[in-house]
Structures are given as structure tokens and as C-alpha cells.
Amino acid sequence: MGKNPCSGRENGQVIIDVIPELERIIGKQSPVPELSAGAAQNRFNRLFQKFIQVFTTAEHP
Fold it and tell me: Cα separation of 52 and 36, whole Å?
């Protein structure tokens, strides 16, 4: 499994807001900058896709 893309990055809190239990694994994260609704949705979609890729491989989608 690869490194968590949320850990140590300013956007880690975005995933914690959706999966609060993740904070136990990656630790407390910095608050995220507020964005417009569309930009916030794009940020979430991009980050969540990277997060899911941590758990998948070509052999195990």
C-alpha cells in the first residue's frame, strides 16, 4: 500500500471531514482554505480519488 495522500498535506482535513475516524491514523490536520462551492467540490473529488488509489492496484481494483 502506498503513502496516504492526505497525511502531511493541507487538504487532509477534507477527507477527515467525511471520514472522521481517519484522524486517528493520519493525525490532526490543518484547516483547509475555504473555496467557492464548485472549487470545494473539485478539490474533494480530486483528493478522494487520490485517497482511493492508495487502496487499489491494477490487480486489485
Answer: 24
3-state secondary structure of 45: helix
**Residue 27 DSSP label:** -
Question: pLDDT for 28-54, tens place per residue?
Answer: 999 999 999 999 999 999 999 999 998
Question: What is the model's pTM?
Answer: 0.73
Tell me the C-alpha distance between 30 and 14, whole Å: 10
Largest Cα–Cα separation, the chain: 37
Nearest to 43 by CA among 14, 18, 3, 13: 14
